[in-house]
# Entry
Amino acid sequence: MPIATSELEKTAIAAAQIAPRLTLAHVSHRYGRMLAVDDVSFSVAAGEFVCLLGPSGCGKSTLLRIITGLVRQTSGQILIDGQEVAGTDVFVAPEKRGVGLMFQDYALFPHLDVLHNVAFGLSALGRAARHDAAMAALQAVDMAKYAQSYPHALSGGEQQRVALARAMAPRPKIMLMDEPFSGLDRRLRDDVRAQTVAILAQSGAATVMVTHDPEEAMLLADRIALMRKGRLVQTGAPDALYFNPVDAEAAEFFCHFNRVHGVVKGGRIETPLGDIGAKGLSEGAGAEVLIRPEHLRVGPVNGAGVTGQASATVLRASPHGQDRLLELSLANGMRMQARAPLVSSPPAGAQIGVSIDAESALVFPCRCGREGNPDAHQ
# Structure
């Protein structure tokens, strides 16, 4: 006769089923006096792809090593499927955490062929099962035909796929990747990244990838965790961080901006290209207006502007993808950049009118300590 499950047990089972695959709670780590990771908390669900993004030295790689168990955090907790694997009194060894690892240099064994490289982490299986699991992983990345080849005979992209197969062969709950695509040329990188993301999505693994490349994070991530000086600055979907950055420094990490400083007067900020709404800044406060090049409108002098118009000289016009990047000098000496369609962009030396899309401008408190500084910076 089956044993009835109590309501309390049902609640516990339900909680375990919906627990995030990976959870970091108030994780900090010191190297001597240096605080490398400072009170970081976030979680990753099954099948979710999260990019740890930030400049070199911000603590993202240390955080990745803490998740793997290669480094034991100074304080805080790591949980996998709701179970603590690292804390004050708990520390589960790396090989028992169900975590897959991919490194920047792939870390393939040169003396082993591709099949044995992939099978290396499957020692708990019998010989036949180990062979079958390794071959299945190679088939998933379209590398089964290279099973008898050695790493030195493979291209960079092929080595990367073998490294992915090796990491995925044990069917890890969590996949951790440290700058895995940085060694590939651009065209190959795009193809390999797309294939890798598709394979990880099918596996259902929670993925955390370290990168310093904002374009890569925007392209791949379901969510981005932006780090600065050991702290988590902002987390969210790529669109949230791009269009609603938490501060000016976060905004500038994702793209180039034209910067204009001013002072809030009557709820507006005066700029050479017209007034901008203060967007919550108090009267008299120093303000910094960030304007993306694509939000500068160029046209004939005295043409219709969105918020006003200034005259400018085109110093340089360079092809940039489907657009042309214009280096501009305004009449007051301010330098700015704008984008214009290749087929209709003005040439170097042209006199043009410039206006801005005021709704797209980002406004933050001034960082310069010099209210009303009129200089713009590239």
User: Anything to note?
Assistant: The longest strand covers residues 34-44. The CA atoms of residues 257 and 292 lie 5 Å apart. Residues 256-365 form a domain with the OB fold (Dihydrolipoamide Acetyltransferase, E2P) fold (CATH 2.40.50.140). The longest helix spans residues 186-203.
